[in-house]
Specification:
Elements: H1 2-24, H2 39-53, H3 57-71, H4 76-89, E1 90-92, H5 95-103, E2 108-111, E3 121-125, H6 130-134, E4 143-145, H7 149-152, E5 158-160
Parallel strand pairs: 3-5
Antiparallel strand pairs: 1-5, 2-3, 2-4
Helix pairs in contact: 1-2, 2-3, 3-4
Amino acid sequence: MDETYAYVHELLNRQMALQAKIEDSPIAGDIQFEYGHDYYQEETRCMGLRMIRDGLDKEGEKLILDFTTEHYPGNEENEKKWIGKMMRYLNAITPTLIDNLLAEGYTALQSNVELPNENAIFYPIYDLNTDTKRLLFMDSNILIDLKQADAYENLQGWVYYTST
């Protein structure tokens, strides 16, 4: 149990910082959280996956599923599928992966959490549109421009990417 304390402590600190940022946002009252589109859920998912990668399989899965049960009851099976998919398809960020993304025409990586976060999950995107620009509502640091090498030079995290 002592092993999980550091993970949970870090998660709670990140969630408190996120809460402060949301409360300071001009559109704070308009933010609606729903399953799969919840900033707190994404922080929990990142930390749970990190715990799983670090060998704390049961504890990491429990952390994620407990959050889902508390906030989105009835979605536990969907979350178990999500965990399995992420553990199977996440790719560590490497220069070769970045080269592959650029070769396939991707222009940016969108993080699921505020950066920097070594546990972030990135989703490649082709271009910025209304949906991706909306994510910048809190002056967040969640988009990485792949056309600027210095933007991803020391980037840490994981990319959910299947080659086309």
